[in-house]
């Protein structure tokens, strides 16, 4: 719409673009913070001597892997 109605109108400045990018990055960091806070590493040892290290989410409600916090 804007490109057709106002084709020669001044576009977003570099300063505004940087502010928008900063807001987007800040919002994405806020949304990713719970994953950082509640992720944990577990090492499982099998009877045959092999080990496997797994990173998983351990939410405060304690229900893994069916926690409803995964879907909010």
From TrEMBL:
Main subcellular localisation: membrane
Coiled-coil annotated spans: none
UniProt name for this protein: G-protein coupled receptors family 1 profile domain-containing protein
Top-level taxonomic group: Eukaryota
GO molecular function, one term: tachykinin receptor activity
InterPro entries for this protein: GPCR_Rhodpsn, GPCR_Rhodpsn_7TM, Neurokn_rcpt
Family assignment from sequence similarity: Belongs to the G-protein coupled receptor 1 family.
GO CC terms in record: plasma membrane
Alphabetical UniProt keywords: Cell membrane, G-protein coupled receptor, Membrane, Receptor, Transducer, Transmembrane, Transmembrane helix
Ranges of residues in domain G-protein coupled receptors family 1 profile: 1-72
Localization (cell): Cell membrane
Lineage: Eukaryota, Metazoa, Ecdysozoa, Arthropoda, Hexapoda
Residue ranges of the TM segments: 19-41
Membrane disposition: Multi-pass membrane protein
């Amino acid at each position: 719409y804007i490109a057709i109605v106002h084709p020669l109108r001044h576009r977003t400045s570099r300063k505004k673009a940087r502010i928008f990018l900063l807001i987007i990055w800040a919002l994405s960091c806020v949304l990713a913070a719970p994953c950082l806070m509640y992720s944990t590493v577990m090492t499982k040892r099998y009877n045959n001597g092999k080990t496997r290290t797994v990173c998983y989410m351990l939410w405060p409600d304690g229900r893994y892997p069916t926690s409803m916090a995964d879907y909010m």
